[in-house]
Amino acid sequence: MIKIGKESYLFDNVYIKTTSTISGKLEQLGPVGGFIDKCFSNNYCNAKTWEKAEMELLDSAVKLVLEKGNLHHDDIDLFIGGDLNNQIVINNYVLKNYPFPLLGIYSACATLCEGLFIGATLIDNVNIDNVIVATSSHNATSERQFRNPTEYGGQKSLTTTFTTTGAGACLLTNKPTNIKITKATIGSIIDSTILDASDMGRAMAPACADTLIKHLRNFKENPSDYDLIVSGDLSKFGKETFLKILKEHNMELNNYEDSGLMLFDIFHQPVFSGGSGPACIALVSLGYLYKMMTKGAYNKILLIATGALLNPIMTYQKETIPSIAHAIVLERV
Amino acid sequence: MEKEIIKKVMKETNPKRKYLQNGIMAFLFGGGISLMGQEFLFLFNDILKLDIELAKTLMYMAVIILASLFTGIGSFDKVGQVAGAGSFLPITGFANSLTSAAVESRSEGLIFGILSNMFKLAGTVIVAGVVSAFIIANILYWVRL
Lengths: 333, 145
Prior knowledge:
Chain A is an alpha/beta fold. Chain A has ten helices and 16 strands. In chain A, the strands form two sheets. In chain A, strands 1, 2, 3, 4, 5, 6, 7, 9, 10, 11, 12, 13, 15 and 16 form a 14-stranded mixed sheet that branches. Chain A is globular, with a radius of gyration of 18 Å. Chain A starts with a strand and ends with a strand. By secondary structure, chain B is an all-alpha fold. Helix content of chain B is 80%, strand content 0%. Chain B contains eight helices and no strands. Chain B has helices at 3-12, 19-47, 52-72, 76-83, 85-88, 91-104, 110-117, 123-144. Chain B is extended. The A-B interface holds A 48-51, 144, 148-159, 190-194, 202, 205-207, 209-210, 213, 237, 240-241, 244-245, 248-249 and B 1, 3, 5-10, 12-13, 15, 17-18, 22, 71-72, 74, 76-77, 79-81, 83-85, 87-88, 92-93, 96-97, 99-101, 103-105, 107, 121.
């Protein structure tokens, strides 16, 4: 593993052994729902509370990734995970069932790529075999914590994004497989200048653009070097802002998609301007993109997970929303 | 990432809010709810021949019960998304905020959940109402002296 420029890294020997994706009903009915491993028929996920439902999603993802990777608890060297809840409790409480050494992380909806970076770094530098990187989100737990009770009748603005109900787990290994993690770029906090917490897509766009620009500059690449560039959850309005910021830097993309618009059909599903939440990019990348790569449909994908690092208290104190974006490159070998 | 570029693009991509459409919907739904309240008043006062003060109380109860029921069955938020201020401003909004907060907090039990969180959203209205009533009452009292 070597450092390239100030923010990027090149990996030698990091592979994805398998992935698992679990979701609620709305995600299953979306454009890439067929690529999700298991879907619950509603957001309760057979649990008594919203938080327990999200735990059920994450637990199912972990169980399934172990099963698909044909591994036992003792084979896992490290678990890296995080979620949107305060103190990342979903992650912590689910891990009560497992003996894995744990690193809990938080970067909101950018958690997946932060986790993949840390896991890949350890695999490439230390003699460890198997790392699980996982994340989850749930529409109701997120509404409860960041916004209002789920049955609250206040009108949501048109820029609102819809938190994904789901979980994704990725098994990283040092033993060669078809899909490799080759590069990463770590983002820094970008001040979005936005005060409106219901405008998160646009709040994350500058960070996404910043990380993309740094990534391409460090590796001396063009956007067309990738089959696909996929952002985390900018959704309808964030996508427009992202592309406009890139245009200000004389960059145009014709191979770009956003996970929030891939996971949901914003014209036929009640998801406002698109999907959000850590599980958004997890379901799209570990489900649809990973499976398409194993079939040979894509060879080189740049994932840019984006996170809005706010909480309600700072929003009420009229502070602008800081955002971050982390990039990971997946390559078919 | 230069802040000037971010500010410039944010200004350019700021979505146009649908003020006229929202205003019309709020007018229609708000008017509709008020009309419903008036019909209840006719029912209690004119048809059932109840005392006007009792009729008013029953009218409020009826509207609140309906709003809470709708919240409980999961329909109020769908109506609220279309109606906007039309369902939020009348007493239906108050009833919905209490009911939705109570329903959501059930998972934390009776004391720390429902009882503790029920006025989470409605608290603003209550405090503002009580404090402003106190101020106005004082002004009136001292002016009339």
